[in-house]
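Researcher: Going back to the complex we discussed earlier. I've cleaned up the inputs and rechecked each line, so this should be the final set. Can you rerun the prediction on the complete assembly and write out the structure?
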Amino acid sequence: MKPVFEVTKGMREMTSHYCPGCTHGISHRLVMEVLDERGQLGDAIGVSPVGCSITAHQYMNVDMIEASHGRAPATASAIKRVHPNAPVFTYQGDGDLASIGMGELIHAAGRGEKICTFFVNNAIYGMTGGQMAPTTLLGQKATTCVDGRTIEQAGSPMRICELLETIPGAVYVERVSLHNPAGVRTAKKAIHRAFEVQEKGLGYAFVEFLSTCPTNWGMTPVKALDWLKENMIPYYPVKQFKCPEEVK
Amino acid sequence: MAEKKLMKGNEAFAQAAINAGCRFYFGYPITPQNEVPEYMSRELKKVGGSFIQAESELASINMAYGAAAAGGRVMISSSSPGIALMQEGFSAAAVTQAPMVAINVMRSGPGIGGIQPAQADYFQVTRGGGNGDYHIIVYAPKSIQEACEMIYKAFEVADEYRNPVMICADGMLGQMMEPVAIPDPIPAMTEEEIFEAKPWALTGHKNKRERNAIKSVFLQQEVLEDFNLNVLAPKYEKAMRELPEAELIDVEGAEVVFVAYGTTSRVVAEAMDLLADEGIKCGLIRLKTLWPFPEYAFDAIGESTKNVIAVELSMGQMIQDVKLAINGKLPVDLINKVGGVLLDPEEIAERTKKIMEVR
Ligand SMILES: Cc1ncc(C[n+]2csc(CCOP(=O)(O)OP(=O)(O)O)c2C)c(N)n1
Ligand code: SF4
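Model: Rerun complete. Updated structure for the full complex:
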């Protein structure tokens, strides 16, 4: 009999260290399922960030390296030069990617590096305990803005997909949301397309996952999903910003 | 070895790396090393290699980290302020055992400093500006020829020790021209060869082995303690046994023993001739490795020696290691210039005579 569901070989069998209800688990599994379905688990090379997912390699069954904080796109660019046919990806949080690593991100995109970046935007610094991130929303509370973020004090949250949209080398840019099953299915398709863009050598591919951090948001996992939908999506519209004809 | 050609230092360094099988180079402009990235941008593609003009030195070392982890032969280069920016990367490369070669074409500091030759990075390269318990292996060439031979060898040492290796040159070596015979080219490894020869490298596991995880974070203190004590420490002890190198010139029977490295050692050698004309017997310990420091060379200093003089283009950095090696047995004095100003042989001879009078 043909099984209707199998756990992907891309995920190693173990209990994760992520908090209950954290969406890191979903995005890990999606990336690995896609590589599995594409038959590329044996070829892929991943770069993990500094953040809660620094040890993503414990779970992802592909060769991986921990980058220094924010430098994943630089490290991945070079890995791709050594193994031009390997699917190379970075997996990064918003502190890592949008704050300390903004330079490496923009320039990897600018060079049109043939790599994929999966961006976990949970609007907060998770690992260090809930400080404000460049993506923290106005009014959102964090340990370095306990009364809520204000424009006067910290400026407006950064929209990364919108920024990358202006860069010619970033040929595929899409924002998805992990707050419901439909969003998860869309996310998976986006990951497929990102790897397709890389395989066809078209340029830099970027997928942002709107994600939750129930622990540092101080919410139950279910409440956190609702909060994402009600607060993040209005500011971070879920949409495909750019997609090359070849993978549509 | 090929026949001698007149070449500019920085270009010869780059060609030596290519001949050693280096195929990956990631650079950022900074004087006085700009000819290295310029040369690599032209030449690497001719041998199937890859050049990226990085957006910063921070990016360039983190690119080198990726290429090294992926099993590629990789080099980076910069000058003093750029090396400062790379320090986090050296620490990461040391803990992940990523082999890479770096050239520092030193200029004056602190701060942006100046673009003239200097040796004020001795602390930066031997003590490391990066965090944690690690070392990088540092060679100090005195000529373009020696630099090329050291670069060529550095890739082997980096692979053997799985550690960053630095060539500490200065602006003079980078900018001047000398006749040089670069060691013969060897081929670079193919991806298949990397998979076989470097089982730790990121190649994709090809469903033939467990996945590789190259780790820099150790959240359990016992695990990091075990790694530092049982992986890093024995490696650095081996380096301290096997790698220290110095050239000893006329140390036996010398009244004064100079200690110097790099281009400064050539100026000292000329000063020694001047002093010999006046009947003063001088010797020289020329450091070829800065870390590990060639302490063994100091055993050659005998009863005849009354003064040890460290000669360097800094406020007095190498002299600290000289004092540790001398361990209080003799007075150690400093002859130096700072800020990018150079020493000449006459000045060294004069200052030496003054030191001898005082002692
Ligand atoms: C150079 C450096 N600076 C700061 C830190 C501390 N640090 C660890 S994780 C992190 C950010 C994590 O936030 P994010 O990227 O949003 O990822 P998340 O944990 O939310 O998934 C920081 C600042 C570090 N490890 N290295
Ligand atoms: S702190 Fe936040 S991002 Fe980190 S594992 Fe917990 S819920 Fe996830």
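Model: Worth noting: Residues 24-247 of chain A form a domain with the Rossmann fold fold (CATH 3.40.50.970).
Researcher: Good, that matches what I expected from the previous run.
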